[in-house]
Amino acid sequence: MTVEKNRRILLRSRPVGLPKSSDYEMVEEEVPEPGPGQIVIRNKFISLDPAIRGWMDESEDSYLPPIKLGEAVKAVTVGEVVKTANPAYAEGDLVMGIHGWEDYSVSQGESQSTKIAADTGVSPSLFLGVLGSTGLTAYFGLLDVGRPNAGEVVLVSGAAGAVGSIVGQIAKIKGCKAYGIAGSKKKIRWITEELGFDGAINYKTCGDMTEAIRAMCPDGVDIYFDNVGGEILDAALMNLRERARIVMCGAISTYNVKEPQPGPYNLWQLLVKSARIEGFLIRNYADRFPEGAVQMAEWINQGRIKYKEEIIDGLENAPDAFLKLFTGENEGKLVIRP
Ligand SMILES: NC(=O)c1ccc[n+]([C@@H]2O[C@H](COP(=O)([O-])OP(=O)(O)OC[C@H]3O[C@@H](n4cnc5c(N)ncnc54)[C@H](OP(=O)(O)O)[C@@H]3O)[C@@H](O)[C@H]2O)c1
Question: Is the model's pTM score more than 0.85?
Answer without folding.
Answer: yes
